[in-house]
């Protein structure tokens, strides 16, 4: 995949970053360099490799899964633009 100047402009717009027209070719080159690094990573065989969260073995901190401030549905639904029968009401998107 190759990023051209128009695609770089679109990505900058989506990221809400103002990029001058004369800087777009350099930005496109940077994107292409990044994509090249990603393609190199895709060539690495990771079969049988366990995912890790850190370079040093450690266990993630966990907490008890308990309700700490329950029974506040009415208070929460007061902030909703539209609530019915104790639930958030949203527009229908699927026919």
From TrEMBL:
It catalyses: L-glutamyl-tRNA(Gln) + L-glutamine + ATP + H2O = L-glutaminyl-tRNA(Gln) + L-glutamate + ADP + phosphate + H(+); L-aspartyl-tRNA(Asn) + L-glutamine + ATP + H2O = L-asparaginyl-tRNA(Asn) + L-glutamate + ADP + phosphate + 2 H(+). Gene3D superfamilies: Glu-tRNAGln amidotransferase C subunit, N-terminal domain. GO terms for biological process: glutaminyl-tRNAGln biosynthesis via transamidation; regulation of translational fidelity; translation. Keywords: ATP-binding, Ligase, Nucleotide-binding, Protein biosynthesis, Transferase. It comes from the Bacteria. One of its GO terms (molecular function) is glutaminyl-tRNA synthase (glutamine-hydrolyzing) activity. Its EC number is 6.3.5.-. It holds the Pfam family GatC. Belongs to the GatC family. Heterotrimer of A, B and C subunits. Allows the formation of correctly charged Asn-tRNA(Asn) or Gln-tRNA(Gln) through the transamidation of misacylated Asp-tRNA(Asn) or Glu-tRNA(Gln) in organisms which lack either or both of asparaginyl-tRNA or glutaminyl-tRNA synthetases. The reaction takes place in the presence of glutamine and ATP through an activated phospho-Asp-tRNA(Asn) or phospho-Glu-tRNA(Gln). This is Aspartyl/glutamyl-tRNA(Asn/Gln) amidotransferase subunit C. The lineage of its organism: Bacteria, Pseudomonadati, Pseudomonadota, Alphaproteobacteria, Rhodobacterales.
């Amino acid at each position: 995949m190759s990023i051209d100047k128009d695609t770089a402009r679109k990505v900058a717009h989506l990221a809400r970053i103002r990029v001058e027209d004369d800087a777009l070719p350099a930005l496109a080159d940077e994107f292409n360099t990044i994509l090249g690094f990603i393609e190199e990573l895709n060539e690495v065989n990771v079969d049988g490799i366990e995912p890790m969260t850190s370079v040093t073995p450690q266990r993630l901190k966990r907490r008890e899964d308990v309700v700490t401030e329950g029974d506040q549905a009415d208070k929460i639904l007061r902030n909703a633009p539209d609530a019915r029968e104790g639930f958030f009401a949203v527009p229908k998107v699927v026919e």
